[in-house]
Specification:
This protein has a single domain, classed as Purple Acid Phosphatase, chain A, domain 2 (4-Layer Sandwich). It contains 9 helices and 6 strands, in the order αββαβαβααααββαα. It comes from Eutreptiella gymnastica.
Length: 200
């Protein structure tokens, strides 16, 4: 059994008996839409939030059918479990797709900081999961698995008539529209120009 599977099993069992700690946010439409905020490296409350919102069952499996889940960024930093949460969402996205649903993950400022090797909010436990600071930094380079995966996250997403973004959009950027904002953000990340608007 993998380390991730063991950790998920223990965590799922422990929070199953805990108080549910979050309420779902959804929009009416042809499909249920649930938005999930910052996880910041806390696997326990990430799973508790997803379970409370009905996204996963007590075994940690997708349970929303054709619904759409939007995770609005900031999975990374502040907690020790960032790698496990990224891997869990990757698995969850595959399960959602198989059921006719969708998981959309957005860039938050902490994802962009990590892509730019700004690691001041990374914990010792998080570094340890990657085998140290150097390996943690390499893991989010463009040629690495996590680096490639996170760079594919859009900055902004629309579902039905709702716009989702991590921290808001300044009017001067909103006028450009969602597609252009995502194009500009992807261009900035590809050029490793992490501090250029519209990502900030």
């Amino acid at each position: 059994m993998s380390t991730l599977r063991c950790l998920l099993s223990v965590t799922l069992l422990s929070w199953f008996y805990a108080l549910e700690c979050a309420q779902p946010v959804w929009a009416e439409g042809p499909q249920q839409v649930i938005a999930i905020g910052d996880h910041h490296g806390d696997l326990f409350y990430s799973l508790a939030t997803l379970h409370s919102a009905g996204v996963i069952d007590q075994n940690g499996q997708w349970s929303l059918g054709d619904a759409i889940v939007v995770q609005v960024g900031d999975i990374l930093d502040r907690g020790d479990d960032c790698r496990y949460i990224l891997d869990f969402y990757h698995k969850l996205g595959q399960e959602a797709e198989a059921a006719g649903g969708q998981v959309i993950q957005l860039l938050g400022n902490h994802e962009i900081m990590n892509l730019g090797n700004q690691l001041r909010y990374v914990t010792k436990g998080d570094f340890s999961l990657f085998g140290g600071r150097t390996n943690r930094a390499k893991a989010f380079r463009p040629s690495s698995e996590y680096g490639r995966r996170v760079r594919q996250f859009p900055l902004v997403a629309t579902v039905n008539d709702t716009v989702f973004v991590h921290g808001g959009i300044m009017p001067v950027w909103a006028e450009k529209g969602v597609a252009e904002l995502n194009r500009l953000a992807a261009k900035a990340l590809a050029e490793e120009n992490y501090w250029r608007a519209p990502v900030w």
